[in-house]
Design goal:
single chain, 157 residues, mainly alpha, two-stranded parallel sheet, 7 helices
Amino acid sequence: QEHGPHPVLVIDNGEGLSITILDLLRRLTCYELDAEDRFSLLLAGTDELLAALRDGALASLRTRIGYAQMLRPFALEDTRNYIQFHLQRAEVDPKLFTEDAIKHLFQASHGRPRAINQLAMQALIQAAVLGSDTVDGDFMAHLIAAHPLYQTPPQDR
């Protein structure tokens, strides 16, 4: 606090950063050879980011990482709580998604929050279009089956 505010640079979707850019971030963090801690960097991404950080060219960046945490996909109960939390925040009936709908959503998303958000939003839009007050298991199963990003590819014959 005696040195003023401490900025935090937040980079999400870090898996899209090239080795060159990640090395540039390393160089920014070692300004004046650690004489001053100018800012902190929060770098978030998928497993692909972890793979990139393991590249030999980034060994010096890895030494500058003070904390690393891998987020795991949600379990069914986490998915249920996540959906309920967002429904409550939106001041919507928490029973809008039935238990069967949540199970279908969980299975299709593999517990990944972005996929949960994507499918839940699609279900809410479609329910609104159809004038439905509930997203049940059948509704969710049909939506998932029709969603181009979640369709199961045909098996090789």
